[in-house]
Amino acid sequence: MPRMLDVSDDVRAEIGDEEADRLLAGGDAPGSYDCTSCRTPGDSEQERTSTVLFVGEETAVLAFAHATCIPSQVVPVSEEQLQGAVRSITGEDAAAATRSPGSDPAPNAPAVPTGERQATLGITCGLVLVGSELHPALVVEPDGPIARPGSTSTEDEFLTLLREQGFQPVTDMNLRPVDNPGWSTLLAMGKLHAVLQPGVNGGSPAAWWQAHQPLAVSDGWRTAANKSQTVLMYAAPAGTIGHQPREDLMRQALEQAAAKGALVAAAMPLAGT
């Protein structure tokens, strides 16, 4: 039976016309599925469904999503990320979660060289009220000073480095951060994979922060991100925000950091699902 599938030109180019036509005719396409974006059930015989192709270095995985959640698209991910996503689908992935208000810091944030020591970037995932609207946000805070790459100085240049990359100082938490072209937040199969920065000399985006394992996000955060297709990222030096048990306390800590001139931010599009 024909499916109500949307197959974008990019997906068709990757899988070929023959496979795309087979999908549209009902072959190789499930009637029911779990949406790769919102993780709730869908039915390609009853509602418009997007084909989403996750492409790694050696592996490609075709997934399905409600067309109302995301459009049909190709999502480039690392081979490690793709294998992790496959394990999560088959139930073999170990439990992992982003740091959120009231939880312990995410244990698998990558280390960043800081001269004499390694600093780990902690990611807090929460909803931030800007004006009258809740926005999905990532709050980044290292556990130690971040030196300029190649420097042996112990001076913390974390905010300076981010400002050089287009992040702007926050003076008022009620104002939406400006867009930072080339930066994006990668969600794949409902989990947070990376924060991407522009590639060198116009090349492919590179991971600025990457989870060692795909990280789960809350349903509320994912819903808000899929609705706005935008994520706000706030960053502060080590020891500025700290671990806050509730989102209102996290907001208060962000406001205090902004008042001290110790907070930068940017808005970036949601890449993937």
Notes on the structure:
There is one protein chain. This protein has two domains: 5-76, no CATH class; 111-272, no CATH class. The chain is 21% helix and 34% strand. The chain has helices spanning 9-15, 17-24, 79-89, 158-164, 219-228, 247-259, and strands at 5-6, 32-34, 41-43, 49-55, 60-66, 73-76, 111-113, 118-130, 133-142, 168-169, 184-188, 191-197, 206-216, 230-235, 264-272. Strands 7, 8, 9, 10, 11, 12, 13, 14 and 15 form a nine-stranded mixed β-sheet that branches. Strands 1, 4, 5 and 6 form a four-stranded mixed β-sheet that branches. The longest helix is centred in the C-terminal third of the chain and has 13 residues, at 247-259. Mean pLDDT is 79; it is low at 89-100 and 102-117.
